[in-house]
Design a protein that fits this description.
By secondary structure, the protein is α/β, with parallel strands linked by helices. The protein has twelve helices and ten strands. Strand 5, helix 3 and strand 6 form a beta-alpha-beta unit.
Length: about 300
């Protein structure tokens, strides 16, 4: 794997047909759809991929199929976040055996750990893993931050190779970017796509953007425009990303609406099924009709941007 992974690394949704069954044909179409957009990597079994809601058997099947199909065209990053230490290790070892490139871990959820406990957890976890590790800051769901002192300590471990921040706190993100300058091989990627342009302006290296499941080229082109110094173009593309967010992520009043919106739009595009892992359910007919209407509007806007 490249020492520093930059650009867009979509957090791929997991196409499902039922509670414990992949939509295999949809998965194959989705992978090719995303890779055709020129992305830098693929992140599976994250939040958008409903990783913690899937059986261990299904997680392994997904890893197998994704790694085989991607076939090293881009790096594959596998989420191993779990409440059970041994399960995180087992998934990590399985991912290594079938050709994944790196692993991603957020703080174990349910019972919140203190920072000394989180540091010790990483000290114990990393030697057990056969692949390099990205840290994933997702305090809204894990209830625990990777505090900056913990990140600073992680910089000393050469097998920890990057950082994804989904806190939405740009001040924290800026401090993380400054901190990580002493490890130039460490990419700092932002989760919330609504702040992708701002993150790049602060020195971030790219994004793990859910909307790149739908329109990967839009997100890739923003990073390319920013890298080329074309800030006007980059801002215009960020405005379009905000339109995507407004169109699909705020239908309904629940946190699951973001994943439902992405899955529903992909189903409307004919890419894959939009079945959700329980306790969540796909959008009903009225919501689906709204997604289809907004999808046509977004596609027209992207056409005007030559995307």
């Amino acid at each position: 794997m490249k020492p520093s992974l930059t650009g867009i690394v979509p957090p791929m949704i997991t196409p499902l047909r039922s509670r414990d069954e992949l939509d295999v044909a949809g998965l194959e179409k989705l992978i090719e759809h995303i890779l055709a957009g020129g992305v830098s990597g693929l992140f599976i079994l994250g939040t958008t991929g409903e990783g913690p809601s899937l059986s261990y058997r299904l997680r392994r099947e997904l890893i197998d199929r994704v790694c085989k199909q991607v076939n090293h065209r881009v790096p594959v990053l596998v989420g191993i976040t779990d409440t059970a230490f041994v399960e995180s290790v087992d998934i990590g070892r399985h991912a290594a055996n079938v050709g994944a490139d790196a692993l991603v871990v957020a703080p174990p959820y349910y019972l919140p750990e203190a920072q000394p406990e989180l540091q010790e957890y990483l000290d114990h976890l990393v030697p057990e893993l056969p692949l390099p590790l990205f840290l994933y800051n997702m305090p809204a769901l894990t209830k625990v931050h990777f505090e900056l002192d913990t990140v600073r300590r992680a910089l000393d471990n050469q097998r920890i190779i990057g950082f994804k921040d989904s806190s939405g706190d740009l001040n924290y993100f800026k401090q993380a970017v400054e901190l990580i300058k002493r490890r130039p091989d460490w990419p700092v990627l932002i989760g919330p796509e609504e702040r992708l342009f701002d993150a790049l302006q602060l020195g971030g290296h790219g994004g793990v953007s859910g909307g790149a499941n739908l329109f990967p080229k839009l997100y890739v082109k923003l990073c390319e425009a920013h890298r080329a110094g074309d800030l006007v173009r980059a801002q215009a593309l960020q405005d379009q990303i905000q339109h995507v967010s407004d169109a699909f992520y705020r239908i309904g009043k629940y946190s699951s609406s973001i994943i439902k919106g992405i899955k529903c739009a992909l189903a409307c595009l004919g890419v894959c099924d939009d079945f959700m892992a329980e306790p969540f359910h796909r959008f009903r007919s009225g919501e689906r009709e709204l997604v289809m209407k907004r999808l046509k509007e977004i596609e027209a806007q992207l056409s005007q941007l030559n995307l």
